[in-house]
Amino acid sequence: MPILSTDVVDLTQQLCTIDSVSGKEGEIVDVVAKGLEEQGWHVHRQKVYDDGKGRDNVYATRVPIGDHVPRLVFNSHFDTVPPLIPLKRTDDALFGRGVNEAKGQLAALIIAANRLVDERPDLAKDVALLFVVGEEIDHAGMIKANDLPGYGPEFLIVGEPTEMTYASIQKGALKVKVSVAGKAGHSGYPHAGVSAIHKLVEILDDIMKYEWPKDAHHGDTTFNIGSISGGQALNAWAEKAAAGVSFLLISLCNFLNIC
Questions:
Q1: Strand (E) positions, 148-197?
Q2: Which UniProt keywords apply (predicted)?
């Protein structure tokens, strides 16, 4: 029995039974790397994190890595957002964490790449697969992939959920940490301190109310205040506070008002 199923639905199901929430990608990396080797791919595991968990990128080509620069690369990511949602299969659908992002895409890309090299062996050397780790948190895998030997495609097909439509462009990502300093003191004495949280709330309110750039064709700049931390006690002025904000940009120059 092959390591990786050759049926796209069965392969999606197989991959979705593996917990690969960001930080736990080691097991799925092992399975996919060994499965691709079994299918005749030259597999290079690129170390990304030094945590000893095997959280590596997988770069697979039909000729030895570095001997040729493939023109076409199929790309997606191993990790999912938390929490793990157990897989459920019905007569006509799969439900569970990773089905929509991005294990369904991993399965489709693996099947498509194998079919392409089987039906067009003359193109095989120009086809590669690149699956990365850490996409949902810090993009370290995709950043590190730029250092791969023999990596420099002309065409990159990225597996992401796009509501079953083709997308030729995507928004840029900008992640910001807003850190604010206050002065610690007992909250019963307003003159004795300054709350970093109060100051942070004012900044976040400005972000919420600001008219960020919009484009009739590419859409709106969007953002998410994804994390907030700060304070040391309910009856103390917060000495420190911070928030994490993620922006999806349509234009960096418009975002910075420098166009």
A1: 155-158, 172-181, 185-186
A2: Zinc
Q: Is 67 helix (H, G, I), strand (E, B) or coil?
A: coil
Question: What does the block give as tokens for 124?
Answer: 């095989």
Residue 242 tokens read as 């911070």
Structure tokens at 246: 């993620």
Q: Evaluate whether residue 151 is within a structural domain.
A: yes
Domain count, the chain: 2
Instruction: Quote the CA–CA distance of 60 and 42 in Å, as a whole number.
Output: 5
Indicate if 241 and 115 belong to the same structural domain.
Answer: no
Write out the E strands in 85-237.
88-89, 94-95, 127-132, 155-158, 172-181, 185-186, 214-215, 219-220, 222-230, 236-237
* Interval 197-255: pLDDT, tens: 999 999 999 999 999 988 888 889 999 999 999 999 999 999 999 999 999 998 766 66
Contacts of 96 (CB under 8 A, 6+ apart): 16, 85, 86, 87, 88
Closest C-alpha to 242, from 224, 259, 221, 228:
228
Helices (H), 171-238: 196-209
Intervals of the chain under pLDDT 70: 252-259
Catalytic machinery residues: 135
